[in-house]
Structure prediction request, 308 residues.
Amino acid sequence: MRVGFIGLGNMGSAAARNLARAGHQLWVHDIRPEAGEVLVAEGATWCDSPAAMVGEVDVVLSMVFGPTQIEQVVRGEQGVLAADCDGKSWIDLTTSTPALMRSLATEFRAAGGHPVDSPVTGSIDSCIRGDMILFVGGEPDDIERVRPVLEAIGVVRLVGGYGNGYVAKLVNNQLWFVHAAAIGEAMVAAKVAGLEPDVWWEAMKGGAADSFVMQHDVPSIFAGHYDPSFRLALCLKDLGLIDQLLDETGTRAELTRATHDRFREALDRYGEAAGEMTVCKVIEDDAHIDLRVDGDWLAPWEVQRPSA
Prediction:
């Protein structure tokens, strides 16, 4: 298929490469032209705007920072809706607000298009491999027409109508961030009480305390880089969207609010470019201990892409 990709950050560039690897013709765009240079050198075609891209492709994918950016991509002067969208498909992978995205999808559908929401979960290594989870919402026919594109970048999990993908992504990240903050407290308490971090980790895996964060993210603490492929700035953006969802639902969320405070503290100490797991470094530093563990800890961004 003729596929366009808007938003060429760490995750976007990796997903775009998987589309090309699957045999789709690829067009790319980013507000930073330099972000597309490698992909263009690999055979992709550069587009100067989202509107120009719509005229070239069958399917447009977008994966940008958040609500402000995706609204500009769609409603901007040179946005998607400035072009003829009749018969085109739009797949959005951005973490955003369900209300905004349902509004944008309604406008895209009114223009003759077929919107599908598909926020992702996983990490940069799952994006590179092409096995990240996609929370896919939309009309069944709209989803089926782009299924080959979705399956080129990840694993489809259907969550209902359009907008439900954004709900699934936000509550997914709600749990992820709570787990990340709690693991820091448990690791530090274990070491202070005499249980070394590597011994603790092996004992915890597979039991009631296990999680994706336990399996995947703890080695970034051992290595001391705390995984900068997902920055604290992104964590705080997502936590703000989660807070907005919680305000809309009116549900109790004391643990989530406390977690948001801990991530704010981490950003204040270490800066917005610091890795997501520095939320644990706050507790580590306050206890005046070191959680480093010697070992060959493969960084998530160093995983090898599958061969074509």
Q: What stands out?
A: The beta strands are 2-6, 25-29, 45-46, 59-62, 89-92, 114-117, 120-121, 132-136, 154-158. Residues 167-302 form a domain with the N-(1-d-carboxylethyl)-l-norvaline Dehydrogenase; domain 2 fold (CATH 1.10.1040.10). The chain has 14 helices and nine strands.
